[in-house]
Design a protein that fits this description.
Number of strands: 4
Bound molecules: 7,8-dihydrobiopterin
Radius of gyration: 13 Å
Helix content: 40-55%
Oligomer: single chain
Structural class: alpha+beta
CATH class: Alpha Beta
Strand order of the largest sheet: 1-2-4-3
Shape: globular
Strand content: 15-25%
CATH superfamily: Transcriptional coactivator/pterin dehydratase
Length: 98
């Protein structure tokens, strides 16, 4: 999988909501209403990561989950990161509805 150019990264980022560039990674912080929702989100993201075979760094707090994505084997951002980011957003927004 090829590393994306700066322009491609800007383009893909503009199609997402709330994700920002942090070095060679994209990051997003999800705020939750309580610990149960936090852990539910973490589990959902973990299952998505296995399905994509692409694994984010997660920072877990009481009412906050920070997701950080990069493609280690490419040494930067690839389409895999943006595909998983989109899937995480869709899944999290479903979970937050309830
Ligand atoms: N997850 N974020 C991320 N980056 C990778 O390069 C990566 C991964 N999950 C699995 C994976 N690479 C495998 O292809 C290799 O570790 C075998």
């Amino acid at each position: 999988m090829e590393k994306l150019s700066r322009d491609q990264i800007e383009q893909r980022l503009s199609e997402l909501e709330g994700w920002t560039l942090e070095g060679d990674s994209i990051v997003k912080e999800f705020r939750t209403k309580n610990w149960k929702t936090t852990i539910f989100l973490v589990n959902a993201i973990a299952i998505l990561a296995e399905a994509h075979w692409h694994h984010p760094d997660l920072e877990v707090s009481f009412k906050r989950v920070k997701v950080k994505l990069t493609t280690h084997e490419a040494g930067g951002l690839t389409e895999r990161d943006f595909r998983l980011a989109g899937d995480i957003d869709r899944t999290v927004s479903e979970i937050m509805k309830h």
